[in-house]
Write a structure and sequence with these properties.
The model has no long low-confidence stretch (mean pLDDT about 75). Helix 3 crosses helix 6 and helix 4 packs across helix 6. This protein has a domain of about 100 residues. About 85% of the residues lie in helices and about 0% in strands. It is mainly alpha-helical. The relative contact order is 0.05.
Length: about 210
């Protein structure tokens, strides 16, 4: 199938190259100019001769334009056929390396995921992703999606672990500090009750 499409496309390109050469060499006809009424009134016989030449040139010009239009149409069809054959080839290769694309439902979900991540993470437009035909590029984007999911999972795990650490540390540190302060104040009170000195009273108030 691909070989047939290539042969057809090559043939159409050869025809276009031929038309291009004709245009470059001035062999393509230009639109003829119809003889004027003034010529008819001034020289009826000359007008009739010019009119015959005009009709012949017009026929040649129209035939050439039809030929060029046909070549252009054939080129368009050949290009579309080549693109379709290429897409089928790339899809087959994609399904070999990523079997999930052979399942219609899974393939649809994967396409949507490719578009979403491609837009939100990598800045692609949806139409840019839809124009990707190379199965290798799709595979690379799919691996990028898996990497992004891995990063999200790692970040979620870290966020889940951090609050637990933050809760434990203040409680442990705070309780130890509170116990130490209470023991210190109790000792200061005992000292003040025993000595009754102004210095010990000030030390207790400051503490």
């Amino acid at each position: 199938m691909a070989e047939q499409v290539y042969s057809a496309l090559l043939h159409e390109r050869q025809q276009i190259a031929q038309v291009y050469e004709q245009a470059k060499n001035g062999q393509l006809a230009t639109a003829p100019i119809e003889p004027s009424r003034e010529l008819f009134e001034a020289d009826p016989i000359g007008y009739m001769d010019a009119k015959l030449k005009y009709d012949e040139a017009l026929g040649s010009y129209q035939n050439q334009m039809q030929q060029m239009e046909a070549v252009n149409q054939q080129q368009t069809e050949a290009t579309q056929a080549a693109q379709k054959a290429y897409l089928q080839h790339e899809l087959a290769n994609l399904q070999k390396v990523m079997p999930e694309f052979a399942d219609q439902e899974k393939a649809q979900a994967l396409r949507e995921q490719l578009v979403t991540v491609g837009e939100s993470v990598y800045g692609y437009a949806a139409d840019e992703i839809s124009q990707v035909m190379d199965h290798r590029a799709i595979r690379v984007l799919s691996d990028a999606i898996k990497y992004q999911e891995l990063l999200k999972g790692k970040k979620a795990a870290e966020e889940k672990a951090d609050p637990a650490k933050r809760r434990k540390r203040p409680v442990k540190s705070g309780s130890k500090q509170t116990g130490s302060n209470n023991a210190k104040r109790k000792k200061a009170k005992q000292t003040l009750s025993r000595t009754g000195s102004v210095e010990d009273a000030i030390a207790l108030l400051i503490d």
